[in-house]
Write a structure and sequence with these properties.
This protein has 308 residues and is an alpha/beta fold. It has helices at residues 2-19, 57-70, 94-101, 116-131, 167-170, 278-288, and strands at residues 22-29, 40-45, 74-77, 110-112, 136-137, 141-147, 150-156, 180-183, 199-202, 231-235, 238-242, 260-267, 297-302. The strands form two sheets. It has a seven-stranded mixed beta sheet with strand order 10-11-9-8-7-6-13, with no helix packed on it. Strands 1-12-2-3-4-5 form a six-stranded mixed beta sheet.
Length: 308
């Protein structure tokens, strides 16, 4: 009996769950988000590690199709698109990944930051591949996004480990009193983010990849342990959301932490909005979406470089 149970668990953790895909909807109430902009739908993708086990270009095509079905207003990519030292997979060049990402559809655009694996491989090449396909890579910059009835700022912050960003210098480019979302790879940066930023979005942790009942998540690549492993975190009135990501690294294993497309509907009082199931959300947005939306007015403002 025990060998059979071990076989089932092994099959689940090393095959079935890593090969699965969930589109999870989260509703986030943010006190610093303007009420007139309630209902912004963000698709957050991170840690795709394209080429890892059960996570090749075909899987990325499926991910893109699922995102497009959800009709998000904006797609945010939180880093780690490549993977090296692949077990059970094969290396996929960033140009291939970018060509598939180019099929993403969102009226407010597709915007990315880079992760530690992208830096370890070749960050200029990853950036060039993405930008050649119309995907904006926002590293240590503040960008105004104004269209579709929304007007907010997106702050792209470089990877904590490799880019070593100066957060205060980056935020010098953010006007006072505006609605702002920060996008970065590593959630360990969150303690440095001031409360003038309504929401910080990150990935990197993979949710720990494994979550044992009673025991929890034994390994999280964070100096804060499980504190920022995944999900919606609120500290001192500041809000963070960490997605558990889509691929794997080191070991091709996931247990009770399935790959996810995170669909975030945000607002100052999201709970006051009518409940919407994902299927209904798709059809409602599909019926009202313009067939050929005009490109959003994006107004970049580069942050001042840190001294020295």
């Amino acid at each position: 009996m025990i060998p059979s149970a071990a076989l089932v668990l092994g099959l689940w953790a090393f095959v079935l769950e890593p090969a699965s895909l969930e589109a999870n909807r989260y509703e986030l109430t943010l006190p610093r988000w303007p009420a007139e902009q309630d209902g912004l739908l963000v698709a957050l993708l991170s840690d795709l590690h394209v080429g890892s086990a059960f996570n090749g270009p075909e899987k990325l095509e499926e991910i893109v199709a699922r995102v497009n079905q959800a009709r998000p207003h904006i797609v945010l990519l939180a880093g780690d698109y490549v993977v090296s030292g692949v077990r059970g997979g094969e290396f996929v060049p960033p140009e291939t990944t970018a060509s598939i990402f180019a099929k993403l559809e969102a009226p407010l655009g597709v915007i990315a930051v880079l992760g530690n694996h992208d830096h370890w491989y070749d960050s200029p090449r990853v950036r060039a591949a993405f930008e050649s396909r119309g995907i904006r890579v926002l590293e240590d910059e503040c960008l105004r996004i104004e269209d579709e009835g929304f007007d907010f700022w997106l702050v792209g912050i470089g990877d904590l480990w490799e880019a070593k960003p100066n957060v205060s210098s980056i935020l010098d480019g953010l006007p006072e009193g505006v609605a702002a979302i920060a996008l970065t790879h590593n959630p360990d940066l969150f303690p440095q983010i001031p409360d003038r930023v309504a929401l910080t979005l990150a990935g990197h942790t993979h949710g720990g990849q494994v979550d044992f009942p009673l025991w929890g998540t034994p390994v999280v690549p964070s100096r804060f342990g499980e504190r920022y492993a995944r999900g919606h975190v609120v500290e001192d009135g500041r809000h963070l959301f960490v997605t558990s990501g889509l691929g794997t690294s080191l070991l091709p294993v996931r247990f009770r932490v399935p790959p996810e497309i995170a669909l975030l509907r945000i607002g100052s009082a999201v709970s006051s909005l009518p409940p919407v199931e994902l299927g209904s959300l798709r059809s409602r947005q599909s019926s009202s979406r313009k067939s050929s939306p005009e490109p959003p007015r994006l107004r970049p403002k580069r942050a001042r470089s840190s001294p020295g």
